[in-house]
Write a structure and sequence with these properties.
338 residues, Growth Hormone, Chain: A, mainly alpha, globular
């Protein structure tokens, strides 16, 4: 019996490992595509499409609006459907949309394409989270979520710095080419996900009407995530323009490097802490640190202060982004808030 069961266990382990790594790669390249353009979109729209700063801000917001608008429906739309196919579709749409931005288009078309990319980003990140974490043992899902989320956090940290470096050295077209390549790499990683991934789908009674899309038990958590995300988006969306006004443009990429360093250090530890303690015990101090970092960024007049602000933001944002995902898996609320 041991020998008969052995190959099945080994095969399951291999499939689980493959889908975890493949999903993590998608979860790196898709956010990298997303976040490389976030801090430069305002000036990119002004430089390449002749838009005003107001329209440039609209173009930058379209990406985030697309991601937010689709989020409430992703869990319902993906339930019972092949997740691998959804990820492939999302990565393909993102690659095609970004490549189209290289053509002679206007700012409204650019904004529409960024909206589609944001929607595809929401679908891909939700599906890959389910694919990756479902393959892990229940008792290790907090740690697994922390490690998996590290790929997203790393992209969110490295992407803005890389986008700023490339834009200033090679121009905005070079950024769009690299972002398109990231989308294609995400598609290749999605192809490596097993055709029938291990997905632990527990039956959940979602109710009818609005309750199919809204889970009352997560209202408080969603409000916290929304406020944290608002601070994060405002900080990153106008970092390039703000640092140029203060004469700190050369320090902007280093802000994101400091941020990424702290996220890398904080994210794995967050998963372990959530496995052992209550989520609120970890998240509340992280929110306070993030608020301190955002405030310091707004007051920064020197490069050193901006670096400290980046470290504080990373130290706070790492746990803030990981805790809600860990809590979701511990409470078995699929699709809520994600």
């Amino acid at each position: 019996m041991t020998n008969a069961a052995g190959p099945s266990v080994v095969a399951t382990y291999r499939v689980g490992s493959t889908q975890f790594v493949s999903a993590a790669l998608v979860n790196f390249f898709m956010p990298l595509n997303f976040f490389m353009l976030v801090p430069i979109t305002v000036l990119l729209a002004a430089d390449r499409y002749g838009a005003s700063l107001t329209l440039g801000g609209f173009a930058a917001g379209a990406l985030l609006i697309g991601a937010v608008a689709v989020r409430p429906f992703v869990g319902i739309l993906l339930r019972g459907r092949p997740l691998r196919g959804a990820v492939l579709a999302a990565t393909t749409i993102t690659s095609a949309g970004t490549a189209t931005c290289l053509l002679p288009i206007d700012v409204l078309t650019f904004s529409a394409l960024r909206f589609l990319s944001g929607a595809a980003f929401a679908v891909a990140t939700t599906a890959t989270l389910v694919i990756a974490v479902s393959a892990m043992p229940t008792g290790r899902r907090g740690s697994a979520t922390g490690l998996f989320g590290l790929s997203n956090s790393l992209a969110a940290a490295v992407g803005p710095a890389l986008g700023l470096f490339v834009a200033r050295k090679l121009g905005y077209d070079a950024v769009l080419l690299i972002v398109t390549a990231c989308g294609l790499l995400g598609t290749l990683a999605a192809l490596a996900i097993p055709r029938r991934p291990i997905v632990d789908e527990a039956p959940v009674d979602r109710g009818r009407g609005v309750r199919r899309f809204v889970e009352p038990r997560v209202f408080g958590l969603c409000a916290v995530i929304a406020l944290v995300g608002f601070a994060y988006a405002g900080l990153f969306g106008f970092m390039d323009a703000a640092t140029r006004d203060r004469g700190l443009a050369a320090w902007a990429p280093w802000f994101f490097i400091a941020y990424s360093t702290m996220v890398i250090l904080a994210r794995p530890l967050t998963g372990r802490a959530v496995d052992r303690r209550d989520v609120r015990t970890v998240m509340l101090p992280a929110i306070a640190v993030l608020a301190l970092g955002v405030g310091t960024t707004g007051l920064a007049e020197t490069g050193a202060t901006l670096m400290v602000a980046g470290m504080l933001c990373g130290l706070g944002m790492g746990p803030c982004s990981a805790c809600p995902q860990c809590w979701r898996w511990r409470t078995r609320l699929r699709g809520a808030c994600h």
